[in-house]
Write a structure and sequence with these properties.
The chain is of the alpha+beta class. Among the domains are: 131-157 and 180-210; 234-257 and 269-277; 278-509, Thrombin, subunit H (Beta Barrel). The protein has seven helices and 16 strands. It has helices at residues 3-20, 36-163, 169-258, 266-276, 281-289, 381-387, 488-503; strands spanning 293-303, 306-321, 324-330, 348-354, 359-361, 364-368, 374-378, 392-393, 403-407, 414-421, 428-431, 437-438, 450-452, 458-462, 467-470, 476-481. The strands form two sheets. Strands 1, 2, 3, 4, 5, 6, 7, 8 and 16 form a nine-stranded mixed β-sheet that branches. A six-stranded antiparallel beta barrel has the order 9-10-11-15-14-13. A hairpin with a 6-residue loop joins β10 (414-421) and β11. The longest helix has 128 residues, at 36-163. It is flat. It starts with a helix and ends in a 7-residue tail after the last helix.
């Protein structure tokens, strides 16, 4: 309680007492005891003192609480001051560290510049050393010639001294000067030889480095020769294979010449000759591998952590259907698989088709009426022309051979397996997987693999591990817009339609 409030309370109590007090002398009551007035006065005084005492105690408690709060505030201020000094010290230390780092960076830059200057100086010295070596060689040759000339002169003078008894003083001086010059030439020659030895040592070090480089070059040359020999060997094998194929072609042409009156066109003759000899699975795969085209699905899907971008890439084969080239592939390997469960469509979807020399973004993708698990993309004429495409044709005689070739488009595994018509549905064929002959790796037919006839024509696509859908015709029905025109709602409807058609199929074909 503050001091001003205390004063107001005391004044209020004092006024209350004054209003209640009776200053008139009371009439004496003979029945009243004489000390009753004194007792009442003492009681009122004691009540006043208790009230004042209680107010003072309350004020004392308030002051103690304020003192405690003041002490806490002082302690907090002291802690803030210590913390501020500590932060100031840390800031000063960091500024000092930044200055040190800047100084270190400056020193490193100076050292780098110095190293660059030294490198340039070394290059200049190497060049100067080479020039000096050449000059020293010339000086050595010149000094050697001078030495030979001086020796010849000395011999001539000695011979002349031997013949002459009297030696002229000028001749002696000349001899001494020649000898002194000869001595100087020898010292100069020795000095030049020492410098030449040092240069030779430097040249030896350079020669060692050249020999190391030469060794590496020889190794690389040897590898190149090995590669060239391998290429020549492969070219020889290719020539042999071409020769064999040319013989087969000539034999086929001879056969065609015998039955030319029965054929209506060269195309039909070639086709009949090709059907006379079934191709091996290796021959079919070697031709088929060059025809595969990449189909890339780029989409975004929402997850627990937000939208994420994804890329899915598959391979498909170009097939001529109704005078138009299509890419036909299984929907199970894509982002649009039909299912009996709930489907969650992506937020965006873009499909691009990439060949060896051209690419384009597909505006639509089509479902196939004959099988709900198949998808198709039409190829524009410009893309086919740029790729110089030779698409597959649908087999005219499905069961001309008892075996077919199955190719995995993802891992490029392939093999030959017997197959037969399905008596329940002529649009499908049963594969005798137990009699499968693996040709490349550990491989068994699975859903989405391509089925090829022994004459290289297209038969169909595996519907599961033992049943293949035989493509005799292809009818595109419902389509899905892609790219900027794509919408998740239309995608859900597209997959929902194919899923409903899948549920209507027999359980063995799902």
């Amino acid at each position: 309680m503050s001091k001003s409030i205390m004063i107001v309370i005391c004044d209020f109590l004092l006024l209350s007492l004054l209003s209640l007090a009776n200053f008139e002398k009371p009439a004496e009551d003979p029945l009243k005891k004489p000390d009753e007035a004194l007792i009442q006065q003492n009681f009122a005084d004691s009540q006043m003192l208790d009230l004042l005492k209680m107010s003072l105690d309350n004020e004392r408690e308030k002051r103690l609480a304020l003192s405690s709060d003041l002490q806490k505030i002082s302690q907090a201020a002291e802690a803030n001051r210590v913390q501020a000094e500590e932060q100031k010290r840390l800031i000063a230390a960091r500024e000092k560290e930044l200055k040190s780092m800047a100084q270190t960076k400056l020193e490193l830059e100076k050292e780098r510049a110095k190293i660059l200057e030294q490198s340039q100086a070394l290059q200049v010295r190497v060049k100067a050393s080479e020039e000096r070596n050449a000059a020293l060689q010339q000086e050595i040759i010149s000094a050697a010639s001078k030495l030979d000339k001086s020796a010849q002169e000395r011999l001539a003078l000695e011979k002349e001294l031997g013949n002459m008894r009297e030696v002229d003083s000028t001749t002696k001086l000349k001899l001494m000067s020649v000898q002194e010059e000869l001595k100087q030439n020898k010292e100069h020659l020795e000095r030049l030889r020492a410098e030449s030895e040092s240069l030779k040592n430097e040249n030896k070090a350079i020669e060692i480095e050249k020999q190391a480089l030469s060794t590496k070059l020889e190794v690389a040359t040897t590898k190149t020769k090995i590669y060239e020999e391998n290429i020549k060997r492969y070219e020889t094998l290719v020539d042999i294979e071409k020769t064999e194929k040319e013989k087969i072609r000539e034999h086929a042409e001879n056969l065609a010449a015998g039955v030319s009156e029965l054929a209506s066109s060269q195309k039909e003759i070639t086709k009949e000759v090709r059907e006379l000899r079934p191709q091996t699975s290796s021959e079919i795969f070697a031709k088929l591998k060059q025809k595969f085209i990449s189909v890339k699905f780029e989409y975004t899907k929402r997850g627990l952590l937000g939208s994420s971008a994804n890329v899915l890439e598959i391979r498909a084969l170009p097939i001529v259907i109704n005078d138009r080239t299509w890419l036909l592939f299984s929907a199970v390997d894509t982002i649009l698989p039909p299912s009996i469960h709930r489907y969650f469509p992506p937020e965006t979807l873009k499909v691009s088709v990439e060949g060896k020399s051209a690419k384009f973004s597909a505006p639509r993708i089509f479902a196939v009426m004959e099988d709900p698990k198949l998808l198709a993309i039409p190829l524009p004429k410009e893309f086919c022309d740029a790729e110089k495409m030779n698409p597959l044709e649908i087999a005219s005689n499905t069961y001309a051979y008892p075996e077919c070739v199955v190719v995995d488009p993802e891992k490029f595994y392939y093999g030959q397996v017997p197959f037969r018509a399905d008596f329940r549905n002529d649009s499908y064929a049963q594969l005798d997987v137990g009699l499968f002959e693996p040709i490349f790796g550990t491989f068994a037919p699975s859903e989405g693999d391509f089925v090829i006839s022994r004459n290289g024509e297209f038969l169909g696509i595996m519907s599961n591990g033992s049943v293949a859908y035989i493509t005799r015709m292809m009818t595109p029905i419902k389509s899905l817009k892609l790219g900027t025109a794509f919408s998740p709602k239309s995608c859900a409807e597209f997959v929902g339609t194919t899923s409903a058609r899948l549920k209507m199929m027999p359980l063995s074909l799902r």
